[in-house]
Design the sequence.
């Protein structure tokens, strides 16, 4: 068995984050008495989109982390990137609540995008170096 602690820890953190996002939705569903959909409640829609956006992005980050870790990439660097991703996703979720918190959404989006781009570039360079035999 090949140990992949960064990927496992990142997946645990992502799963817990997804549970938190779902709990925030459940709280508003109870408050607004909405069992399906958003019931025309913008705060509920915002929280649903925050979770959906997380689910749209997290798998790619986790797959890239796993692939790089299995390829022998620097674990300290991967850990730093994974932490930035989780913090960015928390900021994004808080910012999706709107009003004065809106700026956190921007920080979250920028952080998530930069993490994804960094992982893509790292993975691409790893592939190219492997193919070239270096």
Sequence:
């Amino acid at each position: 068995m090949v140990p992949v602690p960064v990927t496992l820890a990142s997946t645990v953190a992502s799963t817990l984050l997804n549970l938190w996002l779902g709990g925030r939705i459940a709280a508003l569903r109870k408050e607004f008495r909405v069992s399906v959909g958003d019931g025309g409640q913008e705060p509920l829609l915002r929280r649903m989109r925050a979770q959906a956006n997380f689910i749209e992005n997290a798998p790619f980050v986790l797959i890239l982390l796993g692939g790089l870790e299995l390829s022998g990439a620097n674990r300290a660097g991967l850990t730093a990137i994974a932490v930035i991703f989780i913090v960015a996703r928390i900021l994004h979720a808080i910012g999706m609540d709107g009003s004065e918190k809106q700026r956190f959404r921007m920080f979250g989006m920028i952080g998530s995008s930069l993490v994804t781009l960094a992982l893509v570039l790292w993975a691409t360079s790893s592939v190219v170096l492997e193919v070239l035999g270096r």
Observations:
- Helices lie at 5-32, 42-70, 75-95, 102-132.
- The two ends are 26 Å apart (CA to CA).
- Residues 11 and 52 are 17 Å apart (CA to CA).
- The mean pLDDT is 97.
